[in-house]
Each structure stands twice: as structure tokens, then as C-alpha cells.
What we know:
The chain is of the alpha/beta class and 518 residues long. The chain contains 19 helices and 20 strands. The protein has three domains: 3-233, TIM Barrel; 240-344 and 487-514, Rossmann fold (3-Layer(aba) Sandwich), CATH 3.40.50; 358-480, 3-Layer(aba) Sandwich (Rossmann fold). Bound molecules: NADP nicotinamide-adenine-dinucleotide phosphate (NAP).
Amino acid sequence: MTYLAVPISGENIQSCQEQLKTAVQAGVEMLELRTDYIESLDADKLKQLITAAKQTSLPLIVTCRDAEQGGQNDLTAALRSQILAEAVKLGADLIDCEYANFIKSNFGETIKKALAENKKTRLILSAHNFKEPFGNLDEIYEQMFAAFPAAIAKTAYQANHINDCFAAFDVLKKYGSKAIAICMGQAGVSSRIMAKKLDAFLTFASIEDTAATASGQITAEKMKKQYRFDSINNETEFFGLIGDPVGHSIGPVVHNACFEAENLNCVYLPMLAAGGQTQFDEFLDNITARDWLNMRGFSVTIPHKVNALEYAEEKGEYIEPLAAQIGAVNTLTVGLNKRINGYNTDYTGAMDALTDAMDIRRKQLHGKTAAVIGAGGAARAIVAGLADVGAKITIYNRTISKAQNLAAEFDCRWASLENLKNIDAEIIINCTSIGMHPKTDASPVPKECLKPMMVVFDTVYNPLETLLLQQAKQAGAKTVGGFEMFIGQAAEQFKLFTHKDCPMDTLRKITLEALGEK
Ligand code: NAP
């Protein structure tokens, strides 16, 4: 069992009592009393705090952190060791002592004596690095176990990249419930959740965002509701969003809700990966070297869509032919024998949105005239999809050279944006950001050009109905919103990840809610 622990970090007993109440309501499984946060800490306040915390019946860790390792109030070593020894006497289930202090003779002797007198209390030996990963992580654990074999060994270090988490995963694989390994920062979020799959002794969450005691700590509520902490076990399969940034993506909310709706033992994590091809390659090499992590697939976003394609090409892995033609992979699956498969669901999502609205099959787009506005990533995916089924495409773009290059590649026509006033295509697709929030009063197509026989598709999904779509509707044209493309690509990813159809009602509802919150 991996305990879901929260720090109680009030400045006085009353605020700690309020935090204790919230912690119990949040359904946490262990409390860490951060006594170093208490103003004018003394033995009497410690006793009051432990007495209040014991009423919750939850196991208690007492910590009195050294300022050098992230503690508050710069307390003296004498007071800190005395507080920890006293906590043992008062029946704390665990105390957390920095390894660096434990090996100092006075400090360590005080702690060992107290533990010898009350064998019920267990010792956590800890080490922290708020800047970067430890260079010698495994050695630190070995030293801690050598210093006190019955200890639970804990490290918490700053992860500046998802790749920094793998050392922590390796330690947890080796030591399981005798260890705690937390990666702090946005890039370390997944380590807090995967700790349960790896049977760590505990992982930390906060009772609310403002009460986080370390960077990257997420709330207990989010841990339980969004990441379904309670149902994570050794069999859980993990998926993730790999990119930079990932913090504001609605991907984790949406995919996890769909996994839950289908009762699948799967969890989707944000994975912050800065850097370029080298760091991306390292990430996938780390994944394929650790089948036991059960990481089975990834959504790939900026800046790694081309890196994902190049990785798969370099390793001779499977790449969906159209993804290779588009030149970008936005979905990776890790299959049998650690083989990587690369796909592009952006074009699938767009093609499905279009054909669903027109109530036709993809191949019925053959011969239809399509005006694609834009020549960036989205346009490229859509042009490739349309060209594949033989639509007659004209690409309109602000930067003419980009329109020309894309047109040459997919054997279509090109024109400048000014030529949109002469547009008479059956299908119009906006693949620029024109009309996107906050400049919602703009449209790439003059409204007088919109006709009832047209199908007008705007890939922009914020707002859900752009000015272009409003004017197309008024002209009597059929309209398709970027939201449909967005959920179409997510549904296709779900299918590639799980080999099951996506629960579309859940996907729609959760995506709308999540976009509404943005
Ligand atoms: P991108 O690669 O950066 O391309 C941007 C395109 O928009 C380029 O063609 C650019 O023209 C054009 N553009 C940008 N600002 C413009 C302006 N003020 N006037 C005229 N043209 C302008 O971006 P992308 O990934 O293709 O994304 C484009 C849009 O597609 C996004 O805004 C997004 O709303 C939408 N999208 C939707 C989904 C979905 O799931 N619904 C998915 C992906 C993208 P230049 O070449 O001249 O710079």
C-alpha cells in the first residue's frame, strides 16, 4: 500500500486543526505534521498538535525540517532534535529526520535513543535538493539503509525534465515500500502519481492548492478524482501528454474521465519535456528500457511532433503512412516487444468532423473542391487527408511561399488571402488562428462569399462558434466547428491507446466543461 499523505503546515494549532479537518474530508491516509511551520514551536505546542492529529486516527509523521532542506523558521538543531525525540515519546507513528543531521553525532544519538525507547515509531531518513536531481541517487539510499537499516529512505528532488523522474522510478522499483522518491516541480508531477504503481511507502498531496509545501504537489482531491489514486495498482497502464508546456492542457482531465467511464485501469499523466530531439529521444529510450512502468502511449504536442516522427523513423518503427506524409506524429503507442507506433490523429479528427457533418464517407470527398486557409501544422494535416482521398484543393495563405511549398508537396493549387473574395469552393476550411479568442470579431472569408451550398469548417475551437461559422450559418451553409475536430482526434487517440471505442458522451461533456473553465 502507498499512503496518500498530506502535510499539515499551519502556523498555529488552530490553523492546523482546520487543515486536519479538511484532510480527513479529503480522505487522505496519512498526515505529516510539519512542526517547523508552527510559530514559536516548543514541546507544549507539539503535544497539542499531536493530540489534535491523533483524533483523526490517521497515521502521523512528525517532521521538524532543517531550514537548509526547506524548513521554515530556521530552528536550531537542538530544538529540532528535541522535538523529534519528544514526538517519539508522544507516540508519533513516524518521524522524518534529515539524513545529513542523523549522521551528526549529537543529533543522531538523540534520535536513536528516543527510537530505542519506543519501538513503535518508525524513522524516515530524508534528503532534499530543490534545484536539481541528485547525481548519485542509488548511493544515497544505500547510505541511508546502512545508517539505519529499519529506516524508510526518502529523497525529494527537483525534476527539470520528465527524464529526471526515471532515477526515482528505478529507486522505487528496487526498494518499493521501504522507499519514498518524490520529484518536485511541474516535470515531476507524474512521479507523485506513479509512486503508487511502484509501491512507494507514501506519496504527498496537498489539502488545497495554497497549502502545498513543495512545488508540483497536487491536491488530494485531484489525486483521487482526476488520477483515480485509489484504484492505481501494479497492473495500471499509464499514458501521457508529452510536450512543453503541458500544464494548461485539458488532456489529463479528458482522457482520465474517458478511462473512468469505461472502467479501464488506465491513467493519463502530464509529462513536461523541454528541449529538442535529443531530450525527446532520451525520453522514449527511457520508456522502452523500462517495460515495468507500463507506459503504453503518449499524446505528443508542441515542440515534439516532428521529433516523434524522427525517432520512429530512425528506429525503424511503424509510422502510419499519412503521418509520415504530414511530417508529424501526435500519437505514440508502445506495443508488444516495446515497439513504438506513430500516428497522426489531427487529420483523422478533422476528416471525421467533416464527413460526419456532410453525412458522407471519406472517399466521397473525391473530386470535391476544397479551400484550405492557412499553411501551418493544422493545414498540413488537413491537406494531406483531403489529398489522400482526391479532393481538389486550393491553399490560401498569408505567406505565399508557404502556400506554394505545401501546394507543391500535395499537388494542389495555391492563392493569396486576397483571392478569398473570389472563393467558390464546396468546402472551406479555416486553418489559421484568425477569429480565435481574444480577436473574435475577425473572419478570414468575406461574408458575401459564403453560399448555402458550402460546407464551412473552422478549426478554431475557442470560441466554439467563430464569426466565420456564424456568418456561414446565416448564409445557409453547413458548418463544422473546431470542437468536433478536437474531440475527433482525442477519440481516435483513445482508440489507439485502448483498442476500444471512446465514450463520446463523456468526451463531449468533459471537453466542453474543461474548455469552459479555460
Ligand atoms: P501554425 O502552424 O502556427 O500555423 C498558423 C497558420 O495561421 C499559418 O498559416 C499562418 O500564416 C496563419 N496565421 C496566423 N495568424 C494569422 C493572421 N493574423 N492573418 C493571417 N494568417 C495568419 O498553427 P497550427 O498548428 O496550424 O494551428 C492553426 C489553428 O488551427 C490554431 O489557431 C487552432 O485554432 C487550429 N487548430 C485546431 C485544432 C483542433 O483540434 N480543432 C488542432 C490544431 C490546430 P503564415 O504562414 O503567414 O504565418
